[in-house]
Amino acid sequence: MRTIVGITGASGAALAVEFLKRCPGEKYLIVSRWGKSVLFQETGLTVEALAPHVSKIFSNEDLNSSFASGSTQFDQFVIVPCSVTTLARISHGLGENLISRVGEVALKEKRTLLLGLRESPLSAIALENASKLANLGAIIMPLSPAFYMKPASPEQAVSRFVDHMLATLKLAPISGWRENELPHAFS
Ligand SMILES: Cc1cc2nc3c(=O)[nH]c(=O)nc-3n(C[C@H](O)[C@H](O)[C@H](O)COP(=O)(O)O)c2cc1C
User: Fold this and answer.
1) What atom in ligand 1 is closest to the CA of residue 87?
2) Whole-number mean pLDDT of the chain?
3) Residue 127: other Cβ atoms inside 10 A
4) Could you state, in order of their start, the residue ranges of all structural domains in the chain?
5) For the domain 2-145, what is the CATH code?
6) Measured in angstroms, how far is the CA atom of residue 181 from the centroid of ligand 1?
7) Using a 6 Å cutoff on CB, does residue 6 contact ligand 1?
8) Which residues of the chain have pLDDT under 70?
9) Predicted local confidence at residue 184, as pLDDT
10) Is the CB–ligand 1 distance for residue 100 below 6 Å?
11) 8 CB within 6 A, ligand 1
12) 72 CB less than 6 Å from ligand 1?
């Protein structure tokens, strides 16, 4: 399983860190200029600190990266957190940086594209862009905590959301809040 992770300049960098730690398989990372800034502001981490979790980190300016071409295989592209700016670029086919180009490749090659969208409130423009990508098969996953899981701390809310992301990508079993009512309940 080959996963590319994009971090953009939206709030919610802790989710990206947790996802990178827990996502199984081969991983590659691309971080936008503002993604680096928000990552540091929110977690105190630099991009280099994420290197142990991935095979390679690509510059967002590196359109020579093999992943800028559809001929290089990957299974899924996860942008978390995803800004409404990156959402707009991808929904308009603007492959001007590596994150939006890989998004474009995922769409044209019909590969899994998950956008952990973070903005509030959402403008009609952002909603239209998200709707357009959802209709093209992208998974739009707003970064909203599952309050029904009663997280005891922000860290637990982050962990539970990453559980949900991994389950959505079929990389982990679903841990739904009523799962224990079913006969095949996980222990
Ligand atoms: C501290 C900080 C927090 C931000 N939070 C958000 C956010 O939650 N959602 C969003 O869409 N943009 C947010 N922005 C604005 C984006 O960083 C900005 O639009 C940027 O151009 C996005 O570019 P990128 O998608 O290439 O990273 C934030 C910016 C800063 C500095």
Assistant:
1) 25
2) 95
3) 13
4) 2-145
5) 3.40.50.1950
6) 41
7) no
8) 176-177, 180, 184-187
9) 66
10) no
11) yes
12) no
